[in-house]
Write a structure and sequence with these properties.
Length: 321
Amino acid sequence: MRALAALSRFVGNTFAYWVLIFAVLAFFQPGWFVGLKGAIVPLLGLVMFGMGLTLKLEDFAEVARHPWRVALGVVAHFVIMPGVAWVLCQAFHLPPEIAVGVILVGCCPSGTSSNVMTWLARGDLALSVAIAAVTTLLAPLLTPALIWLLASAWLPVSFMELFWSILQVVLLPIVLGVLAQRLLGQRVQHAVEVLPLVSVVSIVIIVTAVVAASQAKIAESGLLIMAVVMLHNSFGYLLGYFTGRLFKLPLAQRKSLALEVGMQNSGLGAALASAHFSPLAAVPSALFSVWHNISGALLSTYFRRMEDPAEQKLEIQRGHD
């Protein structure tokens, strides 16, 4: 079991590389992976169940301690990312299916790896976990509402169909995971130790299935989609950080806000796009999954070196005392 837990940690720490390797492999050998399309929704449910296993009541204590900070992060996430997606679709005059895919990933809750990136960045981990949990729990209502509001101009959007999908693949598995943890207690600890491995394998399969199913379309317009995805993610980080600065949050919380706003649950985006729109609409989510894990790792490395001048001054004063 220790060996499996160690493998799980290694795979979790090298997540971006596995996503990138298999995305490239799926592009050049789509026939190997195209049959995996049917596994997208069940695998996302498995990832969400794993998230439920790790959620504790203490994770929501941050909401009670600093409700306005959590509320700021949640509002920033659901305003900035959908808004930036809509602006980019207009600016680049994207075709309908690609535009819906970009808006869809923009309307998803925070990404499952944002908490890891916040920890690496020396951000406020409690705030990060609280924002990710609240955005995920609000997703069944807010995600379909925002997609309907912003994407209906390109393609027909059914609020109720999206609502039921997210309820089934996000909220229900999370609730089951929380219940399993409450009922089984320490007995789920072994499962929790191998969750990074399960999550990485699941997200890699989702990405490869989407890339394989849309290989021809990616070859035709992949560079355009990739440029939009990179801009979307970058503006998310930038506007998230400056939102924290505008509201005079300490540096650790500004880091958390940047990563929670900029990183999306792209697995959910891919699953919804595949189920309700088309394989092409799932491509922005698949490329976002590859890119935000690379950019998140780079940004967290940069953030790790940043120090708050006020905190530095305090440390110097303590040293003199």
